[in-house]
# Entry
Amino acid sequence: MSNCCVPTVPPDSSYKAFGQPVEDWTARLTAGLNRSIETTNQTMGDLERQIAQQTQGLERKLLEEASQRKADQSPPACPVCGHPLSRLSHGHERTYQTRFGLVTIRRSRGWCKRCKAWRFPADYALGLEDTGSASPSVQEMAALVASKMPVSEASAVLEHLTGVKLPPATLDREARRQGKRAERKRKELDQQMSLGGGAAQCVAVEQKPFTLVIEIDAWNIRERDEWGQSQQQRAKGMEPARWHWVYGGTCFRLEERQPTDPGRSVILSRGTVMTRGGVEALREQLFAECLRQGLGQAGEVLVVADGAMWIWNLVSDRFGSARQRLDFYHASQHLWAVAHALHPEDASAAYQWIEPLLKKLKAGRSVKVIAELERVTKRLRAKRRVEAERELEYFRSHRHRLDYRGAKQSGQPLGSGAIESTCRQYQCRFKRCGQFWSQSGDEALMCLETFWRNGRWHLLFPHSVDPSKN
Ligand SMILES: [Zn+2]
# Structure
């Protein structure tokens, strides 16, 4: 066996203690593998399972021993304020769920007079939390699987793939705890960005001028914060609200958007935000994200979104000088509404009316489109006239957002498809049938999902690998 990947252990190292367990383990593993090699119906899968099983006991022992040594080394000072601890006592056992099984550690406890709290310095040194009994790796596993799939499924998948047993309720609790931590981390990182100290968070941008594209959208999520109180609420004249808006945005440099098939494109690198915290939360998170993606250096900023007023208010608030564009698909839907008002029972006549208008719209001749809308509106009466007038007003209010010709010429997106598909991907997790959330629960898990998508997972779990360093 080659030794090239095995770390060299100095002769005076404390790891000498592992000599005997390693020898026993090698003997057991070798005997088992030899049996499997001779058994004809066993595949590489059986060898993989056997090695994993045999190795785990040893790994658990190594982790327990090494963690105990680290615990023993932690100085008797308050890990929060640094004040020396008094009333020290030792040997406080606590058992943790780790990647390799249960590990028990004996820790010292002391009283911090300044914080007026009992402290276990070893817990801080080892990255263990006051509540919960998951090791940092298991904390990470819980956060990752629960943000990807419902907890009962996540619990089963986790155990199947790693052997780590976390019942659904424990997994849920741990994931939410990590999600809350993620929210605090997001706030800290965003503040750092807006105070000008976030250079390390920024993507590297070249000197040449570039366009930063921002897309914004929203979707709704079902919650049950006041579950069981519907009767009382209705008695008070309030209809309980179940559906709430989740706001999202994405931003990327235009050159990161690469064509794939005709009419399709992929965005190689971008930043995403998603929040249940209201429009204001979106505005601040999106602004920080745009700074990370190069807002400060961008030659041009472009915002693409549907017609919702809150979006354009947010844009004038935070991205005042940005070029604005109405999502082409939404614009065409509003034109279709007029086509149906004009020809309610004749689909082909509606199509004949709209086809040249859609072409005009795409060609940047929105003035002609609005003129045609003004002309046909006068011909309509009653309810259909009201409908057409509403759509006419829609196009008038968005007239400065309809330059689709300029968009095509400069290779910019005509629509906000990137954020719409991102929202749909979040919905695959957060909008399953029969699913109800609480506001604090959905925000926490969405925050985890967003750290993962943005390639910043390692900022939450520093022991995990930073993808940019691969
Ligand atoms: Zn203290």
The first helix runs from residue 19 to 38. Residues 78, 80-81, 83, 112, 114-115 surround zinc ion (CB under 6 Å).
